[in-house]
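@channel anyone free to eyeball this complex?
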Amino acid sequence: MIRIDVKTTNHTQMLDITRRVQEAVTASGVRDGICMVFVPHTTAAVTINENADPDVVRDFTREIGKIVPWEDGYHHMEGNSAAHLKSSMIGFSEQLIIEGGRLVLGTWQGIYFCEYDGPRSRKVYVKILEG
Ligand code: ZN
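replying in thread with the prediction:
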């Protein structure tokens, strides 16, 4: 298992980690297989989406904030229920195909670490299986 350290700088943020995941794949030497990306946090997530137009990330972040408002009479004492909800909605893992030593992604796709209660120091685990 490979660990990627991520430092977020905003309360809510989507960070493109595609290059770092690819580096993990390259370092593993695996040419064909599966790459699993897992976020071991309850107020962060991982997703795949467009990395060409930064407005997509901006819209994504704004709209999910409308779906799950930060204040809404939640009971959780820590005061970050919205972050917990968003994390489960977006999800904690992604699986990618590795072919010829490269992650198989669509032309406009990138892997994003999603922060919902930052800024914090975060971890992403990458597991690479050959086959
Ligand atoms: Zn909490």
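from a first look: The pocket of zinc ion is lined by residues 76, 78, 80, 84 (CB under 6 Å).
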